[in-house]
Amino acid sequence: MITGRNDVRYILDKAKEIGNFIIEKGELDKETIYEIRLAARRSLLRKMERTYSLEMKKQFYYNAGLYYELEGDMPNAIRMYEKYGNNERISSLIIANARKNPSVGNYYELKKYYLRLPESTIRQSVELMTGMSMLQSMLMNVEESERWYEELRAYALNQTGSLKKAAESRLTYLDIALPHRGSTSLIEIFKGVGMLLENKDIVLPEFSVTSNLPSMMNGGKDFCEWSKKDKELAKSIGSIVEIVLGKYGKGLVNLALAESYLEKGEDDYETSSYANKGKMQAEAGGKIEQCFVGNGILTWLYVLNNNAADGAELLDDFYKKAESAEATKLLPNIRAFKCRIQMYYGEIAEVMKWMQEAPKEEIDFNTMERFRYLTKVRGYLILGKLEKANGLLQRLLVYSEIMQRTYINIEAKVLLAITQYRMKNKDWKETLTQCLEQAKQYHFVRIISREGAPMWKLFESYKCQTKACPFLQQVMKETEKMARSYPSYLKEQTERINFNKNALEILKLQSEGLSITQISNETGMSVANIKYHCQQTYRKLGVNGKAAAVIEARKRNII
C-alpha cells in the first residue's frame, strides 16, 4: 500500500532467502507480519533519505498515514502525516476524534496535538471546544475543563440555526459526560434531556456509560449514590435514561440493578437473573461494552461461589467475541480482569506475565487506565513491591477525590489498608475504619469481602463491635468465606524460585548474550534440551522471552 508495487511478496521472500535482516512475526487476519531488524531498518531509512525526492517521501508517509487511519490507529496515522507536514489531515483527524466519546476516542494518545492547537483555532470549532473540555477533565484539570465549557456556552449564545443547535447539543453532552462533575445532578438533567430529544431541539452524540470497564456503577462516572435508591430510580427514570443513551442504554437498567445487588451482597439468584436479562438486551441491539458488564457480574458470582476457574473461562469466551467484533479498546481490560481472577487460584506465572503489559504509572498517570492500575496494585502486593503499591494507591486516591469517584476511593483504601498492614504501618487500622464507614453508607459488602484472605488477616487483628452492626457481620462472614475458598489470594511471593543446575547455567549464559547454538557448543547439551529448559524458566519467571527472563532473574538476584 505504501509503495504501490505489486511484487512486494516476491521481494519479501527474496529478502528472507538472502539474509537474516527480516523475520516473520506471525499472522494476523490471514496476513503475514514481517519485521525488519533495527540495524537494517536504520540503514534502509538512510538509503531512502538519499534516494528519493521530497515529494516521493511525502507520498510514502501519506500512504502510511492512510494505512494506519484505515486500521483505526489514529496516533500512528497522525505521526506519519506529521512527518512531512500534512497539517490538513492532522487537523481533520483531531476534529474527528473530538466527535467521539472517551471510550472509543484517543484523547490521551493525541493530547500533545490538542494542547498544541492555538486557542483561536479551537474557538472556531464546536467539536474542538467539546474535545478540549473533555480532555482537560480527563487530565484532572477541572478549571481548564470548565473554562472550555464556558467558551462553548458563549459560542452557542452568539449563533443561530444549525450552529446554535450543534453547540447546545454538545453542551448537553458535556453536562452528562464530563468525568469530574459526578452523578448527583444527573437525574434532573436526564429528565430535561428526554424532553429536548423528543422535541428534536438537540441531537446528542453517543455516550459510554462504562468507559470499557466491566461496571456501570464505576464506569464513565461514579453512580454509588444512585445505588442507594436503585429500585426506585429504575422505575422512575430508567426508561428515560435508556432513551437518552440510545444503544448504550440497551440493558442498562437491568445491569445496573444486578451490579447494585452484587455489591450489596443481596440474593445471588436475583442478581444473576438481572445480569442475564440485561446482557441479552445488550446483545440484541445494544453495545458490546454493556455485555462486558453482564459478563463481569456473572464472573464475580462464579468467584464468590468458589468457582473462579469458570469465571476465567467465561472471560476467555467473551475475549474471543470482543476480538471478532473488533472492540479493541475492551481487550486490555478483559485481560486485566482475567488476571484478577487468576490471582484467586494462584496462577502466579500468568499474573507476572500480565504485569509486563500493565500500564506504566511512573511515565504518565492515565485516568482511563484506572481498572488496570487497581489490578496492578494487586500484582505489586503479590510480588512484595509494597512501596510501589503504596505509591500507585496514593495517586488513585488523589484521582478519586478530584473526580468524585466514591467507589474507587473505597477500593483504593481497602487495598491501602492491606499494604500498610504488610509494611507494618500502624495507620492500617485508621484506613480500614475509614473504608468500612464509607462502604457502610452504601451497604457495599463485596468491595471488602472480595479481598478475602489478606483482608481476613486484618479483621483478625481489628477490634470492632460486630454484634451491634448487621453490615459488619455480613462483611466479616463473607470475607471469611472468601479466605477459606481462596487461601493463596494475594499471597506475597517471597520464596525463591528453584532452578536445577542446567537451567541456571543456561540462564547465566543467556545473560552473557550467547545464543542457543552457542550454549549448546559451550555445555554439550542438545539444542532441544536447552529449548525445553528455556521454556520452563520463562514459565517460572512469568515472562515470554530471553531478554525479559534475564532482567527478571537479575531483579530477583537469581543471577
Output the keywords.
559 residues; globular; 30 helices; two-stranded antiparallel sheet; mainly alpha; 2 strands
Largest sheet: 2 strands, antiparallel
| Helix coverage percent | 55-70%
Shape: globular
Strand order of the largest sheet: 1-2
Radius of gyration: 27 Å
Estimate the strand proportion: under 5%
Tally of helical runs = 30
Label the structural class. Answer: mainly alpha
Q: Determine the mean pLDDT.
A: 91
Beta-strand segment tally: 2
Unreliable sequence segments: none
Q: What is the end-to-end distance?
A: 47 Å
Structural notes for this entry:
The chain is an all-alpha fold. 67% of the residues lie in helices and 2% in strands. It has helices spanning 8-18, 38-51, 54-70, 74-83, 87-98, 111-116, 119-122, 126-138, 142-157, 161-177, 186-198, 224-227, 230-245, 252-264, 268-283, 288-304, 308-324, 331-344, 348-355, 370-383, 386-402, 406-422, 428-442, 446-449, 452-461, 470-485, 501-511, 516-523, 527-541, 546-555, and strands at residues 22-28, 31-36. The chain has a two-stranded antiparallel sheet. A hairpin with a 2-residue loop joins strand 1 (22-28) and strand 2. The longest helix has 17 residues, at 54-70. The chain starts with 7 loop residues before the first helix and ends with a helix.
Topology (elements, then pairings):
Elements: H1 8-18, E1 22-28, E2 31-36, H2 38-51, H3 54-70, H4 74-83, H5 87-98, H6 111-116, H7 119-122, H8 126-138, H9 142-157, H10 161-177, H11 186-198, H12 224-227, H13 230-245, H14 252-264, H15 268-283, H16 288-304, H17 308-324, H18 331-344, H19 348-355, H20 370-383, H21 386-402, H22 406-422, H23 428-442, H24 446-449, H25 452-461, H26 470-485, H27 501-511, H28 516-523, H29 527-541, H30 546-555
Antiparallel strand pairs: 1-2
Helix pairs in contact: 3-4, 4-5, 5-8, 8-9, 8-10, 9-10, 11-13, 13-14, 14-15, 14-16, 15-16, 16-17, 17-18, 18-19, 18-20, 19-20, 20-21, 20-22, 21-22, 22-23, 25-26, 27-29, 27-30, 29-30
